[in-house]
Amino acid sequence: MWYLFWTEVGGTSLIKRASLGGASPQVLVLDGLYQPRALTIDIATGRIYWVDRVKETVEYCNSDGQDRNVLRKMNSVKFFGIAHYKNFLFVTDQTHDEVLMLHSTSGAIVERIDSDDGSPRSIAVYAKENQPALKNLCRELDCEHFCVKDNPTSAKCLCQDGFTLSADGRSCAGSTVYSPRLITFANKTHVCLANMTATLVDVTIRPICPVFNGSDITAVSADSKHRRIFYADKATQQISSVDLNSGESKVIVTSAGTVEGLSYDWLTDIIYWTDSGANQIKSYAVGAGGPVTVVLSLHNTLGPLTLDPFTRQIFWISQPTGGIKSASYKDSDSVKTLVSSGINPAGIHCDPVKQKLFWTDRNKVNSVYTNGTGAKTVITTDLNHNRGLVVHKELVFWTSYGPSAYIDAGNLYHKVRTTRSTFASQPLVDLDILDNYVRQQTRGVCFENGGCDHYCVPTGGATRECRCELGFKLQTDGQTCSTEFLSVDHFLVADLIAGRFYQVDINTGNVSGTFKPGGGSETVSVNPDHSMVYWSDFVQREIRSSDLTGSNMKTVFTLGDKVASRLAVDDATGNIYFSANPPGTVYGLSYIAVVTPDGKSKKTLVNNLSRARAVALYSSKG
């Protein structure tokens, strides 16, 4: 094997594989993963092992993703690291501060090793057997930077970031002090750059500032492909560019007006900006050298703007009303108000892949779909003075101002501010991202999930593969996922992590997927006489029901200040018995009750319990 394996944890957790040079990335495992924290390889068998911290499992599959199984499940154990040696796995257990030695085939615990120095995390095994001697194919290449084995019979040279491989296949050309993934930001006098990774740690940033003599800089935008930064100076009414490869700085627009917002269209090589003095949106073709063109003439004063180059839409903040509006390029009749009331927006950014707008509003980061639906708050911050904003995959960056000037970062999935990086005492006015891997020429083969029912997996170039969740089969159209519902002899299982109910055939163990009930349900019961499913919705604090297909879903009973922790259905009467508890980990005021199938009558049977949980019925004995 000549592979690099890694895990990804985010919106969809993955285990992936590529060559040692990073070529031909391939998704091996994507269903039923939650937080695969660490993995290890048995090079003798080609088996991959990993720990899932949330599922509390040790799992494995072959190096091609096939033959996946759970080796060991341990309740209330937080796994962190894993390492392989001969027939054993060493797994760190942070719950009990120990290292578990497991048999790699049976999963049995062979030995427990106490950690005297606190909670163990990562782990590695030092042994010659784990690293057999192999022929070094790189000795013959004499690579300038470094060499990787690309397959069992050959190797190739690679260049470090900022350099390209020359025609001889060995030497590297070009140089730059800048990394390939940067965040650029500006205050009134400076335009600066920092490694994006540096802003994800609570530190004081020491950036490189290619512009340091501005007068009243108001906006900045980045061209990732050509490694250029554009910035506008309100005092001089000029727009300038800085080439990060050559270091050349020049004025490209001499009479831009009063620029409040600036955005670069990487598909057409055109910059767009708002001129608040003339109430106009203007553009300039960078590669063609102009001219300045009035794109839209409007009635309101204009603030920052952003673009969706794929749909050729412009989005801007309308001042002083604070609304967010949109229009097609050069079509004033297409102006729409997306968000109109109750907001005071500042920085704004469009993510064309997510088809969402994000903006800062005092102490909040908000989002809305580009069609104006689904407006919501995604992150709440502790500072009111926020302005510039940019989204990069699952991360959002914005500028804020308190005792110092900051770049804040947050995670769209965790919905919290994660880090704060200090810049200087002068407030920052705007920021943007330079990253070739994000601003591509197309939205990608998995835009809008690639037309797939469940999972869309890029397979290289312009191709993709649809895959289905556990319990579903891909149909002949290569996109649709379907299941076969079991009518007899099956278990019904609530999978809290997948958020779906599954049927498991009692005789064969085959799994059929059913519907997603929502509400974080972890308890489910069935009335087989009526083919009805009952479950507890933890979010709405309701007992709900439907048939096995998820049709005719309805609320049976609302508990109010309690949640139904567990429930069971009496086959004879259809009455639903349940344990009720305060949400969270609060103890006391718990009870066991019964409710009729129509939810109209409820009777508390056992009261004043500490925390009732499991409920089971023996109907024939009463």
Termini separation = 62 Å
Largest sheet: number of strands, sense, barrel closure: 4 strands, antiparallel
The number of distinct helices, counting runs of at least 4 residues, comes to 0
State the share of residues found in helices, binned by percent: under 10%
CATH topology (level 3) name of the largest domain: Neuraminidase
Kindly estimate the percentage of residues that lie in beta strands according to DSSP.
over 45%
- The CATH architecture of the largest domain can be named as 6 Propeller
Instruction: Name the CATH superfamily classification of the largest domain.
Output: TolB, C-terminal domain
* Number of DSSP strand runs: 54
Strands in their spatial order, largest beta sheet: 4-5-6-7
Structural category: mainly beta
Radius of gyration: 29 Å
Low-confidence stretches: none
> What would you call the shape?
globular
Structurally, how many domains make up the residues?
Answer: 3
Mean pLDDT: 89
What's the CATH first level of the largest domain?
Mainly Beta
